[in-house]
Protein backbone atom coordinates (compact mmCIF):
# COMPACT_ATOMS: atom_id res chain seq x y z
CA UNK A 1 0.00 0.00 0.00
CA UNK A 2 1.10 3.59 -0.68
CA UNK A 3 3.05 4.78 2.34
CA UNK A 4 1.53 8.27 2.08
CA UNK A 5 -1.88 6.66 2.59
CA UNK A 6 -0.61 4.75 5.62
CA UNK A 7 1.01 7.85 7.13
CA UNK A 8 -2.20 9.84 6.63
CA UNK A 9 -4.12 7.05 8.35
CA UNK A 10 -1.61 7.16 11.24
CA UNK A 11 -2.18 10.91 11.68
CA UNK A 12 -5.96 10.40 11.55
CA UNK A 13 -5.78 7.58 14.10
CA UNK A 14 -3.61 9.65 16.44
CA UNK A 15 -6.16 12.46 16.08
CA UNK A 16 -9.17 10.34 17.05
CA UNK A 17 -7.27 9.01 20.09
CA UNK A 18 -6.44 12.59 21.12
CA UNK A 19 -10.02 13.79 20.54
CA UNK A 20 -11.35 10.87 22.57
CA UNK A 21 -9.09 11.79 25.49
CA UNK A 22 -9.94 15.48 25.17
CA UNK A 23 -13.68 14.85 25.21
CA UNK A 24 -13.59 12.51 28.20
CA UNK A 25 -11.29 14.73 30.29
CA UNK A 26 -13.23 17.89 29.38
CA UNK A 27 -16.27 16.27 30.97
CA UNK A 28 -14.36 14.85 33.95
CA UNK A 29 -12.79 18.23 34.77
CA UNK A 30 -16.26 19.77 35.13
CA UNK A 31 -17.70 17.09 37.42
CA UNK A 32 -17.54 19.44 40.45
CA UNK A 33 -19.60 21.96 38.47
CA UNK A 34 -22.14 19.30 37.54
CA UNK A 35 -22.35 18.20 41.17
CA UNK A 36 -23.10 21.80 42.19
CA UNK A 37 -25.62 22.42 39.38
CA UNK A 38 -27.59 19.28 40.22
CA UNK A 39 -27.18 19.81 43.99
CA UNK A 40 -25.86 16.29 44.58
CA UNK A 41 -23.72 14.83 47.33
CA UNK A 42 -20.45 13.13 46.43
CA UNK A 43 -22.07 9.72 46.87
CA UNK A 44 -25.04 10.66 44.68
CA UNK A 45 -22.69 11.96 42.00
CA UNK A 46 -20.76 8.71 42.16
CA UNK A 47 -23.96 6.76 41.50
CA UNK A 48 -24.82 9.06 38.61
CA UNK A 49 -21.40 8.49 37.05
CA UNK A 50 -22.04 4.74 37.05
CA UNK A 51 -24.38 5.36 34.11
CA UNK A 52 -21.31 6.12 31.95
CA UNK A 53 -19.77 2.84 33.04
CA UNK A 54 -23.04 1.01 32.32
CA UNK A 55 -23.17 2.39 28.79
CA UNK A 56 -19.54 1.53 28.09
CA UNK A 57 -19.77 -1.98 29.53
CA UNK A 58 -22.76 -2.67 27.26
CA UNK A 59 -21.04 -1.25 24.17
CA UNK A 60 -17.54 -2.71 24.56
CA UNK A 61 -18.38 -6.42 24.07
CA UNK A 62 -20.53 -5.56 21.03
CA UNK A 63 -18.02 -3.23 19.40
CA UNK A 64 -15.98 -5.99 17.76
CA UNK A 65 -19.04 -7.29 15.90
CA UNK A 66 -19.98 -3.76 14.85
CA UNK A 67 -16.49 -3.14 13.46
CA UNK A 68 -16.57 -6.47 11.63
CA UNK A 69 -19.84 -5.46 9.96
CA UNK A 70 -19.34 -1.78 9.09
CA UNK A 71 -15.60 -1.09 9.49
CA UNK A 72 -13.61 1.09 11.87
CA UNK A 73 -14.37 4.44 10.25
CA UNK A 74 -18.15 4.00 10.44
CA UNK A 75 -17.92 2.54 13.94
CA UNK A 76 -15.92 5.52 15.19
CA UNK A 77 -18.42 7.85 13.53
CA UNK A 78 -21.27 5.95 15.20
CA UNK A 79 -19.50 6.16 18.56
CA UNK A 80 -18.63 9.83 18.12
CA UNK A 81 -22.14 10.86 17.10
CA UNK A 82 -23.63 8.78 19.94
CA UNK A 83 -21.31 10.46 22.45
CA UNK A 84 -22.19 13.86 20.98
CA UNK A 85 -25.90 13.02 21.25
CA UNK A 86 -25.31 12.12 24.90
CA UNK A 87 -23.53 15.43 25.41
CA UNK A 88 -26.47 17.28 23.88
CA UNK A 89 -28.87 15.57 26.30
CA UNK A 90 -26.58 16.35 29.24
CA UNK A 91 -26.40 20.01 28.20
CA UNK A 92 -30.20 20.24 28.07
CA UNK A 93 -30.57 18.35 31.37
CA UNK A 94 -28.14 20.64 33.20
CA UNK A 95 -29.95 23.74 31.97
CA UNK A 96 -33.09 22.26 33.56
CA UNK A 97 -31.32 20.84 36.67
CA UNK A 98 -32.79 17.46 35.71
CA UNK A 99 -30.94 14.49 37.25
CA UNK A 100 -32.77 11.61 35.47
CA UNK A 101 -32.26 13.26 32.07
CA UNK A 102 -28.57 13.76 32.90
CA UNK A 103 -28.32 10.02 33.61
CA UNK A 104 -29.83 9.25 30.19
CA UNK A 105 -27.29 11.55 28.52
CA UNK A 106 -24.39 9.96 30.41
CA UNK A 107 -25.59 6.50 29.39
CA UNK A 108 -25.46 7.42 25.69
CA UNK A 109 -22.12 9.15 26.28
CA UNK A 110 -20.74 5.91 27.73
CA UNK A 111 -22.02 3.85 24.79
CA UNK A 112 -20.41 6.24 22.32
CA UNK A 113 -17.06 6.30 24.09
CA UNK A 114 -17.02 2.48 24.29
CA UNK A 115 -17.65 1.98 20.56
CA UNK A 116 -15.16 4.71 19.70
CA UNK A 117 -12.44 3.22 21.90
CA UNK A 118 -12.52 -0.31 20.49
CA UNK A 119 -12.68 0.92 16.88
CA UNK A 120 -9.74 3.30 17.28
CA UNK A 121 -7.62 0.50 18.76
CA UNK A 122 -8.46 -1.81 15.85
CA UNK A 123 -7.60 0.92 13.34
CA UNK A 124 -4.39 1.60 15.26
CA UNK A 125 -3.42 -2.07 15.02
CA UNK A 126 -4.10 -2.05 11.26
CA UNK A 127 -1.93 1.03 10.80
CA UNK A 128 0.81 -0.50 12.96
CA UNK A 129 0.90 -3.62 10.75
CA UNK A 130 1.14 -1.56 7.55
CA UNK A 131 3.89 0.67 8.98
CA UNK A 132 5.89 -2.36 10.12
CA UNK A 133 6.89 -0.77 13.42
CA UNK A 134 5.36 -0.28 16.86
CA UNK A 135 3.21 2.86 17.03
CA UNK A 136 0.30 1.81 19.28
CA UNK A 137 1.91 3.41 22.37
CA UNK A 138 2.10 6.71 20.48
CA UNK A 139 -1.61 6.54 19.72
CA UNK A 140 -2.29 6.03 23.42
CA UNK A 141 0.05 8.93 24.15
CA UNK A 142 -2.30 10.95 21.96
CA UNK A 143 -5.17 9.95 24.25
CA UNK A 144 -3.15 10.92 27.35
CA UNK A 145 -2.08 14.23 25.80
CA UNK A 146 -5.62 14.99 24.70
CA UNK A 147 -6.88 14.19 28.18
CA UNK A 148 -4.32 16.52 29.74
CA UNK A 149 -5.34 19.37 27.40
CA UNK A 150 -9.02 18.63 27.98
CA UNK A 151 -8.54 18.78 31.75
CA UNK A 152 -6.71 22.11 31.47
CA UNK A 153 -9.39 23.56 29.19
CA UNK A 154 -12.11 22.35 31.52
CA UNK A 155 -10.35 23.86 34.52
CA UNK A 156 -9.85 27.13 32.64
CA UNK A 157 -13.50 27.37 31.60
CA UNK A 158 -14.54 26.58 35.15
CA UNK A 159 -12.31 29.40 36.45
CA UNK A 160 -13.88 31.75 33.89
CA UNK A 161 -17.33 30.62 35.08
CA UNK A 162 -18.35 29.42 31.61
CA UNK A 163 -21.55 27.41 31.92
CA UNK A 164 -21.30 23.64 31.62
CA UNK A 165 -24.13 23.64 29.07
CA UNK A 166 -22.26 26.03 26.76
CA UNK A 167 -19.05 24.02 27.21
CA UNK A 168 -20.79 20.78 26.22
CA UNK A 169 -22.47 22.35 23.18
CA UNK A 170 -19.09 23.45 21.82
CA UNK A 171 -17.70 19.92 22.36
CA UNK A 172 -20.73 18.38 20.63
CA UNK A 173 -20.20 20.63 17.61
CA UNK A 174 -16.44 19.94 17.50
CA UNK A 175 -16.85 16.16 17.79
CA UNK A 176 -19.55 16.11 15.10
CA UNK A 177 -17.33 17.99 12.63
CA UNK A 178 -14.31 15.79 13.45
CA UNK A 179 -16.33 12.60 12.96
CA UNK A 180 -17.34 13.69 9.46
CA UNK A 181 -13.84 14.45 8.20
CA UNK A 182 -11.09 12.68 10.20
CA UNK A 183 -12.10 9.02 9.57
CA UNK A 184 -11.98 9.70 5.80
CA UNK A 185 -8.20 9.40 6.13
CA UNK A 186 -8.32 5.90 7.66
CA UNK A 187 -6.94 2.94 5.74
CA UNK A 188 -9.19 2.00 2.82
CA UNK A 189 -11.65 -0.70 3.74
CA UNK A 190 -10.23 -2.81 0.90
CA UNK A 191 -6.99 -3.05 2.91
CA UNK A 192 -8.68 -4.97 5.67
CA UNK A 193 -12.15 -5.74 4.39
CA UNK A 194 -11.25 -9.37 3.87
CA UNK A 195 -10.07 -9.79 7.42
CA UNK A 196 -13.12 -7.97 8.76
CA UNK A 197 -15.45 -10.13 6.73
CA UNK A 198 -13.61 -13.17 8.07
CA UNK A 199 -14.02 -11.79 11.58
CA UNK A 200 -17.73 -11.44 10.99
CA UNK A 201 -17.95 -15.00 9.74
CA UNK A 202 -15.99 -16.37 12.70
CA UNK A 203 -18.05 -14.32 15.13
CA UNK A 204 -21.08 -16.12 13.83
CA UNK A 205 -19.67 -19.61 13.28
CA UNK A 206 -16.51 -20.09 15.33
CA UNK A 207 -15.52 -20.03 18.95
CA UNK A 208 -16.12 -16.84 20.86
CA UNK A 209 -13.02 -14.82 21.66
CA UNK A 210 -14.18 -15.02 25.28
CA UNK A 211 -13.25 -18.72 25.30
CA UNK A 212 -9.70 -18.28 23.94
CA UNK A 213 -7.00 -18.85 26.54
CA UNK A 214 -4.46 -16.46 24.98
CA UNK A 215 -7.02 -13.65 24.60
CA UNK A 216 -8.05 -13.94 28.25
CA UNK A 217 -4.41 -14.01 29.38
CA UNK A 218 -3.73 -10.85 27.37
CA UNK A 219 -6.83 -9.44 29.04
CA UNK A 220 -5.21 -10.08 32.44
CA UNK A 221 -2.13 -8.17 31.31
CA UNK A 222 -4.33 -5.24 30.36
CA UNK A 223 -6.41 -5.57 33.54
CA UNK A 224 -3.38 -4.85 35.75
CA UNK A 225 -2.23 -2.00 33.53
CA UNK A 226 -5.69 -0.43 33.36
CA UNK A 227 -6.20 -0.70 37.12
CA UNK A 228 -2.79 0.87 37.68
CA UNK A 229 -3.59 3.80 35.41
CA UNK A 230 -7.19 4.29 36.51
CA UNK A 231 -6.36 4.18 40.22
CA UNK A 232 -3.63 6.78 39.82
CA UNK A 233 -6.01 9.03 37.87
CA UNK A 234 -8.58 8.90 40.66
CA UNK A 235 -6.50 8.68 43.81
CA UNK A 236 -2.90 9.84 43.46
CA UNK A 237 -3.79 13.48 44.16
CA UNK A 238 -5.87 12.64 47.23
CA UNK A 239 -3.25 10.20 48.50
CA UNK A 240 -0.67 12.99 48.23
CA UNK A 241 -2.86 15.39 50.19
CA UNK A 242 -4.02 12.95 52.86
CA UNK A 243 -0.87 10.85 53.18
CA UNK A 244 1.87 13.44 52.82
CA UNK A 245 0.14 16.54 54.16
CA UNK A 246 0.37 18.34 50.82
CA UNK A 247 -1.92 21.12 49.64
CA UNK A 248 -4.56 20.43 46.98
CA UNK A 249 -2.31 22.23 44.49
CA UNK A 250 0.50 19.86 45.46
CA UNK A 251 -1.79 16.89 44.88
CA UNK A 252 -2.70 18.25 41.44
CA UNK A 253 1.00 18.65 40.60
CA UNK A 254 1.68 15.04 41.66
CA UNK A 255 -1.10 13.89 39.33
CA UNK A 256 0.41 15.99 36.53
CA UNK A 257 3.81 14.35 37.16
CA UNK A 258 2.22 10.92 36.79
CA UNK A 259 0.37 11.83 33.57
CA UNK A 260 3.39 13.58 32.05
CA UNK A 261 5.60 10.54 32.74
CA UNK A 262 3.05 8.15 31.25
CA UNK A 263 2.53 10.31 28.16
CA UNK A 264 6.27 10.74 27.58
CA UNK A 265 6.97 7.02 27.77
CA UNK A 266 4.08 6.27 25.45
CA UNK A 267 5.52 8.61 22.85
CA UNK A 268 8.92 6.92 22.88
CA UNK A 269 8.04 3.41 24.08
CA UNK A 270 7.46 2.00 20.61
CA UNK A 271 11.17 2.16 19.76
CA UNK A 272 11.94 0.04 22.85
CA UNK A 273 9.42 -2.57 21.73
CA UNK A 274 10.96 -2.73 18.26
CA UNK A 275 14.44 -3.07 19.76
CA UNK A 276 13.87 -5.44 22.67
CA UNK A 277 10.54 -7.11 21.93
CA UNK A 278 7.02 -6.83 23.33
CA UNK A 279 7.33 -9.19 26.32
CA UNK A 280 10.66 -7.82 27.69
CA UNK A 281 9.27 -4.28 27.49
CA UNK A 282 6.14 -5.41 29.31
CA UNK A 283 8.29 -6.93 32.06
CA UNK A 284 10.26 -3.71 32.42
CA UNK A 285 7.15 -1.53 32.27
CA UNK A 286 5.14 -3.50 34.80
CA UNK A 287 8.19 -3.82 37.05
CA UNK A 288 8.58 -0.04 36.97
CA UNK A 289 4.91 0.37 37.87
CA UNK A 290 5.28 -1.98 40.84
CA UNK A 291 8.43 -0.27 42.08
CA UNK A 292 7.00 3.20 41.57
CA UNK A 293 3.79 2.31 43.40
CA UNK A 294 5.68 0.99 46.43
CA UNK A 295 8.04 3.99 46.49
CA UNK A 296 5.09 6.39 46.31
CA UNK A 297 3.22 4.67 49.14
CA UNK A 298 6.16 4.39 51.57
CA UNK A 299 7.90 7.69 50.65
CA UNK A 300 8.50 9.91 53.69
CA UNK A 301 8.42 13.15 51.69
CA UNK A 302 7.01 14.73 48.55
CA UNK A 303 10.26 14.58 46.57
CA UNK A 304 10.66 10.82 46.93
CA UNK A 305 6.94 10.34 46.29
CA UNK A 306 7.36 12.28 43.04
CA UNK A 307 10.15 9.88 42.03
CA UNK A 308 7.71 7.05 42.70
CA UNK A 309 5.04 8.83 40.60
CA UNK A 310 7.48 9.10 37.68
CA UNK A 311 8.27 5.37 37.84
CA UNK A 312 4.59 4.55 38.32
CA UNK A 313 3.58 6.66 35.31
CA UNK A 314 6.33 5.18 33.13
CA UNK A 315 5.25 1.69 34.15
CA UNK A 316 1.60 2.42 33.37
CA UNK A 317 2.43 3.57 29.86
CA UNK A 318 2.87 0.37 27.89
CA UNK A 319 0.55 -2.32 29.25
CA UNK A 320 -2.71 -1.16 27.66
CA UNK A 321 -1.36 -0.35 24.16
CA UNK A 322 0.75 -3.51 24.04
CA UNK A 323 -2.29 -5.54 25.07
CA UNK A 324 -4.24 -4.01 22.17
CA UNK A 325 -1.42 -4.88 19.76
CA UNK A 326 -1.28 -8.45 21.06
CA UNK A 327 -5.05 -8.89 20.75
CA UNK A 328 -4.87 -7.70 17.13
CA UNK A 329 -1.94 -9.89 15.99
CA UNK A 330 -4.26 -11.97 13.82
CA UNK A 331 -6.08 -9.48 11.52
CA UNK A 332 -8.94 -11.94 10.95
CA UNK A 333 -9.80 -12.01 14.66
CA UNK A 334 -8.66 -8.53 15.68
CA UNK A 335 -12.12 -7.00 16.08
CA UNK A 336 -13.45 -9.73 18.39
CA UNK A 337 -10.26 -10.02 20.46
CA UNK A 338 -9.70 -6.29 20.90
CA UNK A 339 -13.31 -6.02 22.04
CA UNK A 340 -12.75 -8.70 24.70
CA UNK A 341 -9.44 -7.27 25.93
CA UNK A 342 -10.86 -3.73 25.98
CA UNK A 343 -13.85 -4.89 28.01
CA UNK A 344 -11.62 -6.57 30.60
CA UNK A 345 -9.39 -3.50 30.79
CA UNK A 346 -12.21 -1.00 31.13
CA UNK A 347 -14.03 -2.99 33.79
CA UNK A 348 -10.82 -2.77 35.84
CA UNK A 349 -10.36 0.90 34.91
CA UNK A 350 -13.90 1.81 35.98
CA UNK A 351 -14.59 -0.59 38.84
CA UNK A 352 -11.15 -0.77 40.49
CA UNK A 353 -10.87 2.81 41.81
CA UNK A 354 -14.20 2.73 43.72
CA UNK A 355 -13.09 -0.51 45.40
CA UNK A 356 -9.86 1.19 46.43
CA UNK A 357 -11.96 4.01 47.85
CA UNK A 358 -13.76 1.47 50.04
CA UNK A 359 -10.41 0.11 51.26
CA UNK A 360 -9.26 3.68 51.83
CA UNK A 361 -12.05 4.20 54.33
CA UNK A 362 -10.43 1.47 56.46
CA UNK A 363 -6.69 1.82 55.80
CA UNK A 364 -6.32 5.36 54.28
CA UNK A 365 -6.24 5.71 50.52
CA UNK A 366 -2.43 5.88 50.38
CA UNK A 367 -1.97 2.42 51.89
CA UNK A 368 -5.01 1.05 50.03
CA UNK A 369 -3.12 1.71 46.79
CA UNK A 370 -0.85 -1.22 47.63
CA UNK A 371 -3.73 -3.51 46.65
CA UNK A 372 -2.89 -2.61 43.04
CA UNK A 373 0.36 -4.54 43.46
CA UNK A 374 -1.61 -7.81 43.34
CA UNK A 375 -3.00 -6.95 39.90
CA UNK A 376 0.43 -5.82 38.65
CA UNK A 377 2.02 -9.10 39.75
CA UNK A 378 -0.76 -11.00 37.94
CA UNK A 379 -0.01 -8.98 34.80
CA UNK A 380 3.71 -9.77 35.09
CA UNK A 381 2.96 -13.49 35.37
CA UNK A 382 0.73 -13.44 32.28
CA UNK A 383 2.93 -11.11 30.18
CA UNK A 384 4.33 -13.97 28.01
CA UNK A 385 0.84 -14.37 26.51
CA UNK A 386 1.42 -11.07 24.67
CA UNK A 387 4.27 -12.54 22.63
CA UNK A 388 3.66 -11.72 18.93
CA UNK A 389 1.63 -14.44 17.26
CA UNK A 390 3.35 -15.95 14.18
CA UNK A 391 1.21 -16.05 11.05
CA UNK A 392 1.51 -19.82 10.97
CA UNK A 393 -0.36 -19.98 14.28
CA UNK A 394 -3.29 -17.72 13.33
CA UNK A 395 -5.60 -20.57 12.52
CA UNK A 396 -4.67 -22.43 15.72
CA UNK A 397 -4.68 -19.44 18.10
CA UNK A 398 -8.17 -20.17 19.35
CA UNK A 399 -7.26 -23.72 20.41
UniProtKB/TrEMBL annotation:
InterPro entries: MFS, MFS_dom, MFS_trans_sf, MFS_Transporter. The chain crosses the membrane at residues 47-68, 75-94, 100-119, 139-160, 166-187, 215-237, 249-269, 281-314, 334-360, 367-386. PROSITE patterns: MFS (PS50850). It is found in: Cell membrane. Residues 5-391 form the Major facilitator superfamily (MFS) profile domain. Keywords: Membrane, Transmembrane, Transmembrane helix. It comes from the Bacteria. It is a multi-pass membrane protein. PANTHER family: BYPASS OF STOP CODON PROTEIN 6, INNER MEMBRANE PROTEIN YBJJ. This is MFS family permease. It comes from Arthrobacter stackebrandtii.
